User: Fold this.
Amino acid sequence: MLAVITGASRGIGESYARQLAARGYALHVAARDAERLARVAGEIRAAHGVAVEEIVLDLAQADGAERLYADVRRRRTEPVDLLVNNAGFGLYGEFADMPMPRIQEMLILHLVTVTKLIRLILPEMRERRKGAIINVASVAGLLPLPYLSLYAATKAFLVSLGAALDLEARKHGVVIQTCCPGRTATDFHATAGIKQYWAPGDQQTADEVVAESLAALDHGRSFVVTGWRNRVLNRIQQFVPRRVVLGAAERLMRP
Ligand SMILES: NC(=O)c1ccc[n+]([C@@H]2O[C@H](COP(=O)([O-])OP(=O)(O)OC[C@H]3O[C@@H](n4cnc5c(N)ncnc54)[C@H](OP(=O)(O)O)[C@@H]3O)[C@@H](O)[C@H]2O)c1
Assistant:
């Protein structure tokens, strides 16, 4: 079994890599930080005895998906059983102040690269009538979020795309899961420029998020909000008037 995981040098992607290796998957792991990726890959090989290929790549480049796919094809001896589209980052603050290069990076990484990777790998899975794709979205994709506006909008795209594609792919034996974690203890907040904020819901570890995602995949579930408090909140906000939810979100997220 072979899994391709983007953003596996740390955080949630690293946990996917470790837990999938523990399940016996060979891995192709991609990220930009060669040193961290090599360390994670080395530890996984030593702990689980599986083959781990490191692919050092900036997936926020327009041709990132094609380059990753070409690299996997060049090295692999077996088909891809699982694709985990995990690489991502946050951008916090007023949209009008966000640096244009970071906006461009986010649009390519979250939208273009994920869409192209699915389009490149899904046909083989459909042909084999076997395989799964996990797109790591976020609870931020379930409602508009002031000051995390672009991030939340890109994750909403993944929620919509994943739900529709799962319905298309399932009859061909392929599951597409949209995983929506809430706050997770990783480097994400520091990278996003979020110093401190209080938010309702769970704060989980990356390992907890990934364990829930993979357990849900075992049951063929295409949508998972991780953390029971996050699930309760998601239910509640569906019944509360939208302007009330958005007003609360603006106050909570305000820098
Ligand atoms: N932490 C949370 O609270 C939270 C909540 C909901 C959803 N998520 C989502 O979970 C996913 C993983 O985030 P995380 O929390 O694990 O954050 P993280 O610890 O900052 O890890 C992000 C990963 O993405 C990779 N990455 C970032 N930009 C990249 C690029 N241009 N090309 C290739 N790889 C890139 C990073 O590797 P390099 O830096 O080595 O490239 C790293 O491996 C993201 O999609 C995020 O939106 C996180």
Q: What stands out?
A: The CA atoms of residues 2 and 26 lie 5 Å apart.
